[in-house]
Amino acid sequence: MIAHNQDGLKRTVSDKRFGDTRHPSNGIKFIGFTGEALLDVLLDAVEIYYHGRRLNYVDDKGRPRKQRYSDLSFNAFHTDHRWLRLLRDYIDMYATVLGAQLPCHLDTVRLIAEMASACDENLCSAVLRKGIRMVEAADYLTEALSCEIPSVRSAAGQTLVRLDHMLRDEGRLDIEGRLRHAAESPNKTMSGAAVCYIARLLKQKKNL
User: Fold this and answer.
1) Total of domains in the chain
2) Among the listed residues 130, 132, 146, 131, the one whose alpha carbon sits nearest the alpha carbon of residue 178
């Protein structure tokens, strides 16, 4: 993956030679709007593909730095490039610049609404459509147990119990562990809600 180091490409393509540390390197970048700059990075890519090294970057001894094509390819396929993820970051940034405060747990409420309208078989797809992973969804829902709005706490807890029922056999999420951790929170609202939904979760397991 070759990209110019600008705008959204800074966030989706990672090249540690440009100081990117948010994700492992999944491509190579260049700067300069010239044909020569593009040719240089293309030759760099060819060198990586055939010889596992970079032409444009050398180590302390002046030798081309090693860079395996297989590593870049693996990282590219395991990096979430969806613009939905970046959009959420931009919304937070603009809200900060404007001094505006977004409603508490706004993303979680939207997630709950999306998941509520999905059948069990499409639950994971509903989460992915919101631009987040299942682990993040479980974390957001657990955090929402601290919400001062009772209906939000209730919807979040019920959704966690539903997730546990759907994914228990896959071992992908430890919903009960998250709830037990939340039950120890100094936030009384969160701990009280967590205790309530632990009881519901255990009752559900007992009835299976």
Assistant:
1) 2
2) 146
